Amino acid sequence: MRLFVSVDLPDDFAQPIADLQAEFAEASGLSFTDPEQAHVTMKFLGDTDEDHLPDLERALEAAVDDAGVDPFTVRYGGLGVFPTLEYISVLWLGVERGGEQLTTLHESIEARTTDLGFDPEDHDFTPHVTLARMEHAGGKELVQELVEERDPTIGETRVAELRLTESTLTDEGPVYSTVASFPLE
Questions:
Q1: Where, if anywhere, are coiled coils annotated (predicted)?
Q2: Global confidence as pTM
Q3: What is the pLDDT of residue 24?
Q4: Which residues are catalytic?
């Protein structure tokens, strides 16, 4: 099973995200994510043996408890890229509010999952929603221009749970399904 831990965006955010992606439609080299599957990846776990699911679910429950984060509001807005504007591999929508709680949850998840043997992250956590991946630099200048000029706000939503999500790769792109949910209390 190819797994990750996520905070999923509500269904009514799909259209505003699609509208934002449309602003980048002329930038060649971008491969857009499905706005109906928009989420913040809290931890990518990768290929995981199904036998390890019970331990992983217990670890994620403990991580939520350790973090001590109650349900909170996230406002999604702003644009950014990874790793830099000069060399773009990912275009993303940022978090204007709620980033502190997301980071606290991420750090707790990171601690519990690395204890189980999952690889630690090799970069700092930046809460974001991936809008597109840049496969070649043909449209880099347009992406740079829009990222520097635009400061969109998509909206606010309440985060009340984390999800353990399975990603099944298909010819049409990844298909996500929820394996387990972990309420914030």
A1: none
A2: 0.95
A3: 97
A4: 39, 128
